[in-house]
Write the structure tokens for this entry.
Amino acid sequence: MPRTLSDDEVRAAVPMRDAVEAVRHAFTELAAGHFTQPERLVFGGGRVLVMTAHHEPSGSAVVKTLSVRLDRTPAILGTVVWTGDGAPLVADATAVTTLRTGAVTGVATDLLAPADAGNLALLGSGAQAADQLRAIAAVRTLRAVTIHSRTAGNARKLAATLGDEFPAVSFRVAETVEDALADAEIVNCATSSGTPLFTLSALPEQVHVNAIGSFRPSMRELPAELLATASVVVVDQVEAALAEAGEIIQALEDGHLDQAELVELGTALREPPKVSGRTVFKSVGVAAQDWAIARSLAASVE
């Protein structure tokens, strides 16, 4: 019989630092061509998602099925099924998804943000936000975090929760996005917005921006001007970004960005790009990330 792991069991088995390293390894394997990873299946206008990946060297595979309702708490419900040498493993998809999405942000931030960057602006206070911060804290020594959200009450609750978890970090809530961004060295966007969250002029000249909230062509968190002027735009996978990342799709259609300028994360890990000024990481999520967390879970219960 397969072993089934709850949200709490997933988090106990794979601490964020381990998740970051697991996802880093998965992207180097992806760049090496060691995965068969079909494009994500999308049903019901994005309300049902199915993702799968097969790691050829190990013969292991993962399948994740999600129900996504942005008007529901939690917004993501589903299962992750891991198949390897032993018995199959089933895990709660909410925990796996937020953990692996946080972890890839940690990988990208470690690659693209200055080593001494410690001021974070967190835009969005939903289900993904806490693990986004935890991942960045795993790769950078944070000094101050400013949270801005459409719902100020949620932002205050998140600041209080994370303040207890990270007592050495200063937390505050900003009423405007401009205030949140003013002193940011790292910006993290985790919203379901259909329009850009800020203008280019609101960003400092030296800043790294992660955007992980939008996963449909109709969603946009980043202004086209940022994509046009950033020293590097890294995506988790070009094929996935072209199918699902609204800001990338629109910037390409409007001529603000050329597809040849997009750098895949796995490639960037093998050949780090030269970075300066503003840098961008845009993720819609790929199944190799789920494989990374599921593989770590399977190893933890052997």
